[in-house]
Amino acid sequence: MKITWQMVLDFYIIFILVLLILKFVLHNKRILSMFMFYLGILVLTAIAKLLNLEVSDTFFKIFPMGFFIFMVVVAAPDIRLTLESLWKETVKSGVVQMSSEKTKNEIIKAAMALSKESIGGLITIEKHNTLDQYSQRAIQLNSDVSRELLINIFTPNTPLHDGAVIIRGDKIVCAGAYFILSSNENFDKTTGSRHRAALGISEITDSLTVVVSEETGSISIAINGVMTKMKDENALNEYLSLFMK
């Protein structure tokens, strides 16, 4: 068989398309689950056709398209979230400069102080995925991380207490940043917007967010789409130490 330039171009287009689909699907666990279920239906359709199962074959000819439409409707918020992430997300070049031990301790002290007074707080620590798309729309600070500054930012009725603080290395890049809220249906419906924002940013970037509840004073960590409640200061220190390695 003679290989023509049209065949090479055709293969290249399909290859790129498959890569884009995989990147999109693997970026969101919920969409991945739906996609795997859809692939399973397609496999069953092929088996029904191969074995001449007339009833099953007729059903599976109709079901995939109906399920695809259902999937698009149900997963619309996840699709929007994933598309925004893929469009805006970039990876920082070079070696990632993680926060120092001093910065880590300042974050812990601030979180514990906020918890003691039941003051809400949202502190996001950047890693590989840049958070510029959020910091650019917030209040720029570029200040050294300190317990006093973090507490002052989140003190109620102050100009910067709403939204999140974004930390890059040993600097507070900004305050008052707003993230897309998670649409995770398994999340407690009574949970406030701070926790949903923390979970939302952890679902689309590799950042870690420390969130303090103003209702209970509890401290939680959101990372990789999972929210974990900290039982004490040692647990918080352990999570931050592992993340900042």
TrEMBL record:
* E.C. designation(s): 2.7.7.85
One GO molecular function term of this record is:
adenylate cyclase activity
Instruction: Write out the catalysed reaction.
Output: 2 ATP = 3',3'-c-di-AMP + 2 diphosphate
Q: Where is the DAC domain?
A: 76-233
Q: Which Pfam families match?
A: DAC
Q: Does the keyword Nucleotide-binding apply?
A: yes
Q: Which UniProt keywords apply?
A: ATP-binding, Cell membrane, Membrane, Nucleotide-binding, Nucleotidyltransferase, Transferase, Transmembrane, Transmembrane helix
Keyword match RNA-binding: no
> Could you tell me the Gene Ontology terms of the biological process aspect for this record?
cAMP biosynthetic process
Which parts pass through the membrane? 7-25, 31-51, 58-76
What quaternary arrangement does the UniProt entry report? Answer: Probably a homodimer.
Q: What does this protein do?
A: Catalyzes the condensation of 2 ATP molecules into cyclic di-AMP (c-di-AMP), a second messenger used to regulate differing processes in different bacteria.
Query: What family, per the record?
Result: Belongs to the adenylate cyclase family. DacA/CdaA subfamily.
State the name under which the record lists this protein. Diadenylate cyclase
